[in-house]
Design a protein that fits this description.
With 82 residues, this protein is of the alpha+beta class. The protein has two helices and four strands.
């Protein structure tokens, strides 16, 4: 067990809905667990090593109804790192 993680809690989590090609809504989720992100969408799940791009993706999934400028994503990502 990784002693740097308390009780296996998620560091960050985001969920949202998106429309996939067949027209039905699908739920997307992305959650950070230590140095990895778990990304789920349309029945598929991936575990990926932490990166800035995944933090940006988490912001987009968290607020699917909002248009976010790239600079807003970078600013939000920088504040999460501090």
């Amino acid at each position: 067990m990784d002693s740097g993680r308390a009780n296996n809690q998620h560091d960050a989590e985001a969920t949202g809905e998106a429309e996939v090609s067949h027209g039905l809504p699908a739920t997307a989720s992305i959650c950070k667990e230590g140095e990895y992100w778990t990304v789920s969408f349309a029945g598929s799940t991936l575990r990926l090593r932490d990166s800035k791009g995944l933090a940006y993706l988490a912001q987009l999934v968290r607020y699917p109804e909002h248009s976010l400028h790239a600079l807003d994503l970078v600013t939000a990502g920088n504040s999460l790192e501090e």
